[in-house]
Write a structure and sequence with these properties.
single chain; mainly alpha; about 75% helix; binds farnesyl diphosphate; binds magnesium ion
Length: about 280
Amino acid sequence: MIVVLMARACNIHSNRDGDLLPAQRSIAMISEMIHTASLVHDDVIDGADMRRGKTTINEVWGERKAILAGDFILSAASTALARIGNTAVVSVLSQVIEDLVRGEFMQLGSKENENERFKHYLEKTFKKTASLIANSCKAVSILVSSDPEVHEIAYQYGRNVGIAFQLVDDVLDFTSCANQLGKPSAADLRLGLATGPVLFACQQFPELHSMIMRRFGSDGDVDRAWRYVLESDGVEQTSFLAQRYCHEATRQISRLQPSPERDALIRLTELVLSRDK
Ligand code: FPP
Ligand code: MG
């Protein structure tokens, strides 16, 4: 939906009608396919048994078939991308696949130093979540405009909305219950991950540092860390940071000519912040 709206907003900005070009429609589909493939693989890495309220592929068919299913979706996406026949677009969307894998690798490691840790978290967040949105938005802008400023607006909107989306996701892992999410909550701590709320909480409760370093692996760590986070203002601070990214997304997209699609992208930043599942 974001990619379709961005395509229409860029088309109108370039003094055309809003109708999608066939290649822009393909980008929206390819983007969704890369996203789906990455989630199928992610559920294997995380050992997840539920996604969007349904049993995961790895749970039903086993890990080997789930990995191959993800690869198959990615191969179909690659074929569709090649068919567009635009090398700039191929390189922008290939960057997404590299970023997804690097982001997932970054998540497997942790940083000792607290300043480095937050930087590492934001960089991982960009690669794992925001790069797909940023580069897909950029790709549809390239197809209609040769102006690098328009490409940058599309990219920056996607980057900021994407980071905000993941920050909210990290908050919901603490504040929403499994029924609402359609996937288990407190999952991040159980996976050993220190996300925004924990990193902010650690500034108030330095006791969290050693738990973060051992990836909440000792008996009782998950429960203790959970309580520290809820006693701290880590959830509020992470939500506040998400708001700042959404404001920046709005500022960027407002540089395009007015259109209903541009306004929908602005409203979308509010939905990102208010969602509860
Ligand atoms: C969800 O994270 C995971 C991602 C957004 C990216 C996963 C990327 C890979 C597994 C690399 C392989 C990529 C491709 C293209 C096949 P999460 O676990 O924080 O979110 P969740 O709670 O929804 O599972
Ligand atoms: Mg996961």
